[in-house]
Amino acid sequence: MTQNNHAEVAIIGGGIVGCAIAYYVSKSGIDCVLIEKNDIASGTSSRCDGNVTIVDKDPGFDSLMSWKSQELTIELSNELDLPFEYRALGSLLVCENDTEMQAAKEWVNIQTAAGLKFNLLDREDLRQESPYFADDIPGGLECETDSLINPYLFCYSLIEKAKQYGLKLQTHAEVTAITKKENFTIETSKGTFTAKKVVNAAGVWAPFIGKMLDLDIPIIPRKGHIMVGARQKPVMMRNVMEFGYLMNKFGRERIVDERTEKHGVALVLEPTESQNFLLGSSRQFVGYDGRIDINVVETMARRAIRFYPKLNDFTMIRTYTGFRPWTSDHLPIVSAVDEIPGFFIAAGHEGDGISLATVTGKLIDQLIREESDTIIPIDPLRFERFSKIPSL
Prior knowledge:
With 392 residues, the protein is an alpha/beta fold. Helices cover 29% and strands 25% of the residues. Helix 1 (16-27) packs parallel to helix 5, helix 1 packs parallel to helix 10 and helix 2 crosses helix 10. The longest helix is centred in the first third of the chain and has 19 residues, at 61-79. It is an enzyme of class 1 (oxidoreductase).
């Protein structure tokens, strides 16, 4: 066993969450290695949009996490050496009908009461945002602090800086077994590594890592489609979602046609720095089947045209799918595991991995260093919340 194959902390998973953890842990001066079975950002983090948002978060703890993550992302936009297309433009949530508008008003009141920068928008406000909105869209809301990044570049920017702090990086090293005695022994396709502590940041693959230690991690994949489109004239300058996106995310009832409901489709449109745009979204539980479903793609396109009728002339460049790591309460697991001392989980962010990567990385660093004053409360994110209550 060479010294290079031992570390204080081993991080498994090179997506945006694992990269953020690697950055903060390395910055704290802790000897760590990041182990990734393929390349950095080769999984979900390269098959998603780049929203760092509060606008789509439930008021309360969910919003607090995103707010803290936004603050950390601003810091990183100044600290990291490699640019990652950070754009602090704010974002919109648009309503399809008056019922949603009433819900939006209540949403704004709750969020502003919590100190967040939300504003209600009427029909004319939306026309100022884009002349392409359908005439019958009554309005929506905005969150001023939301931003956009390029997740792929962000991962590499984090890793590049972490390496300056001493991070050891092992790519194309698939983990095949983990055992725990005094230290953890991690068998990979690239050799054996040992570490005093292990962080499971493997996203939708986190349950497979857990099983190696006889640990049941309740995360399942939730598939989503994204289209990459182009148009001669830009449709929007900043990110927009429909209010129904929240309904899909949290499993709430919507008033939509059967096909839209079946595929969990809701409008998400994100302009990119290259002047193209990403168009989503869909939500399906189909296991790890990553094949593109043309019926879902057609439903997404039709939903986009509902809000932007003049978008019917856009060019679809490509379509791809990714898997969101879903938990039943829609909160990630960011936690030590009591029954396996030294083992941590940072996974289950569903569609919020981009938004919550930085706060997750910071929190795991604090948990590893056993800080009592953490950046956010840890109880709502504890792994043990999924433990079954024993029957009497």
